[in-house]
Amino acid sequence: MSKPFTNPFFEADMTKLFDVSKFTGEFPMPQFNTEAFLTAQRKNIEACTALSQAVSESFQSLWRRQGEAVRQMMEEASQTVNAIMSCPTPEDKVIRQAEAGKVAVEKCLANVRDIAETVAKCNNQALETVNTRMNEGLDELRCIVKSRSHAA
Hints:
mainly alpha, 4 helices, 82% helix, 0% strand
C-alpha cells in the first residue's frame, strides 16, 4: 500500500485533515444523464459539420465565380484594347475608351453585388443552422429538466 502524500515542509497527513467522502456525503449529487449529454454533443457536432460543409461549398462557389469574372474581364480587356487601337482617330479612341470604362465599372459593380448576395446567403444559412441547433438544444434541456423533476 502506498504511503499518503506528505509535504516535506509540513509534516501532516493531509488525508486526515479533510475527508472528502464526508464532505460529499452531505450534499446529494444529481444523477447525470450521460446518454442525453452524448446525444446532444453528437447533434452539436453534426450541426457544426453541416455548417462547415455549407460554408465550404459557398466559398468554393464564390471562388469559381471570381475566377470566371477575372477570366471574362481579361478577355474583354483584350478585345477592348484591340477595338480601341483599331479606331482611326484619337477622338474615336477616347470615346471608345470612355464607353469601355463605363461598361467595365458596371460589370464590376454587378460582380460585387453578386458576391455580396452570395456572402449574405451563406451567412443566412449559417445563422439558420446555428439557430435551429440552439433551439433543439434548449428543447433537449427542457426535456431533461422535466424528466429529472418527475423522477424526484
